[in-house]
Design brief:
Blueprint: E1 3-11, E2 15-18, H1 19-26, H2 30-36, E3 41-44, H3 51-64, E4 72-78, H4 89-96, E5 104-108, H5 114-128, E6 133-142, E7 155-165, E8 170-180, E9 186-187, E10 196-197, H6 199-221, E11 230-233, H7 238-248, H8 261-264, H9 271-282, E12 291-298, E13 302-310, H10 320-328, E14 331-332, H11 335-341, E15 358-364, E16 367-372
Parallel strand pairs: 2-14, 4-5, 4-6, 11-12
Antiparallel strand pairs: 1-7, 1-8, 2-3, 6-7, 8-13, 9-10, 12-13, 15-16
Helix pairs in contact: 3-4, 6-7
This protein binds 3-hydroxy-3-methylglutaryl-coenzyme A.
3-hydroxy-3-methylglutaryl-coenzyme A (HMG) is lined by residues 29, 31-32, 35-37, 80, 111-112, 149-150, 153, 185-186, 197, 199-200, 202-203, 206, 234, 236-237, 240, 266, 268, 297-299.
């Protein structure tokens, strides 16, 4: 049975900070950000947007592509930046999408890797339940402290995809190369909003894990590296993906995979799958029948390299113009607004637009309150 990605969509916040602005105020040469780390802009989340609101928007678009949302039997929410250590962020999405009650909902966490774990679980579930569909969401907001080396690599977004049999976009192949190792390269204790990290160690471990997991994938699959037509890499910043590519697939460009991430910033669990959407939306060649490799990396760390074959008629499932419009419609904020939005005391829920149909409007008794602007 062919199983894989049947529809896919992403969403990010309605605001961005230009890295040219950040460079100016941090007294850094802008060339370091645009050429050195490969980033132009980063999405900034106002108080009324969080991992749930953008996830609802991405998921709403992803399930609008399927015939009957009552076939969604499971919703897996992959995130490392949820606000609740007990209740699943996925339950809010289940509620706002009005999915049926007999649908399993839970969150998964392993840094940026968790959406890949969710994809694997979803695939096994569909193999056992061929008429079921599983909604996978990866949603993260990435924050580092001001003036750290991570600051220009902040960002955030959600991706949502439906995993089903006879997929209309990508059939996932069975092989995977996995590498897990206990390392303190990036971590976020529960009392902190900003992640802590050892930047150089994390970049080294990303590359080391890639080489090991790719070697394991090639050995298991008996596929030659030259049989992989395109590769999407987890992109904490675009230069990281380019470096990985230059060590692995020297002759192939990955430029199309990075167009969206270069203006969104790091979106952790969503990042790899936004690379995939960016490839589908921007490459001129017909990808039908082409093998796409995916390198997923989550600090701490777990890495996986796997592949999929693009299915016929995938172009009918794309929403390229709207994806591009969503990004060009974002509002640029000033450095002063960026600083004010970074202040945890800023609870101004009402002065900012939100991209989707659900917005947060307050916190009462430690409970987040969301409002729906439209009913589905
Ligand atoms: P840094 O130390 O400030 O930068 O931060 P640098 O001095 O290493 O410079 C970066 C690059 O810019 C270098 O190029 C410089 O030469 C170049 P490279 O040697 O790497 O090719 N450069 C310039 N280029 C043009 N004009 C100039 C100029 N100046 C310098 N004037 C660092 C870099 C990655 C450490 C930082 O961004 C960071 O700490 N980021 C956060 C951690 C991170 O993203 N790690 C990535 C791997 S871990 C991962 O992917 C997991 C993660 O997503 C989390 C999760 O799993 O949940 C982060």
């Amino acid at each position: 049975m062919k199983i894989g990605i049947d529809s896919i969509a992403f969403a990010t916040s309605g605001y961005f900070l230009s890295l040219e602005t950040l460079a100016k105020y941090r007294n850094v040469d802008f060339a370091k950000y645009c050429a050195g780390i490969g980033q132009m802009k980063m999405s900034i989340f106002p108080p009324n947007e969080d991992v749930v609101t953008v996830a609802v928007e991405a998921a709403r678009k992803a399930i609008s592509g399927i015939e009957d949302k009552n076939n969604v039997d499971m919703l897996i929410f992959a995130t490392e930046s949820s606000f609740d250590l007990s209740k699943s962020a996925g339950i809010y999405v289940h509620h706002f999408l009005k999915l049926k009650e007999n649908c399993r909902v839970f969150d998964l966490k392993q840094a940026c890797y968790s959406a890949t774990a969710a994809l694997r679980l979803a695939k096994s579930y569909v193999r056992e339940n061929p008429d079921s569909k599983v909604l996978v969401i990866g949603s993260d907001v990435v924050k580092y402290s001001p003036r750290t080396s991570g600051e220009p690599t902040q960002g955030g977004a959600a991706v949502a995809f439906v995993v089903a049999k006879d997929p209309r976009i990508l059939e996932i192949e069975p092989w995977a190369g996995i590498h897990t190792t206990d390392i303190m390269d990036f971590w976020r204790p529960s009392h902190l909003e900003e992640a802590l990290f050892d930047g150089k160690l994390s970049a080294q471990n990303y590359l080391k894990s890639m080489h090991i997991s790719v070697a394991r994938y090639l050995e298991k699959s008996n596929i030659a590296i030259s049989d992989v037509n395109h590769v999407c890499f987890h992109a904490p910043f675009c230069k990281m993906a380019q470096k990985a590519n230059s060590q692995l697939f020297r002759l192939k460009s990955i430029g199309e995979t990075l167009i969206y991430n270069s203006v969104i910033g790091n979106s952790c669990s969503a990042s790899l799958y936004i690379c995939f959407v960016s490839l589908l939306d921007h490459i001129k060649d017909d990808l039908t029948g082409k093998r796409i490799g995916f390198f997923s990396y989550g600090s701490g760390s777990v890495a996986e390299f796997f592949s999929g074959i693009v299915t016929k008629n995938y172009r009918q499932m794309l929403d390229t113009q709207n994806n591009q419009k969503m990004l060009t419609d974002r509002v640029e904020i000033s450095f002063q607004e960026y600083e004010s939005l970074g202040n945890r005391e800023n609870l101004d829920f009402h002065s900012y637009k939100n991209v989707g149909e659900v917005a947060m409007f307050g916190i009462n008794n430690h409970q987040r309150m969301y409002k729906v602007r439209k009913t589905y």
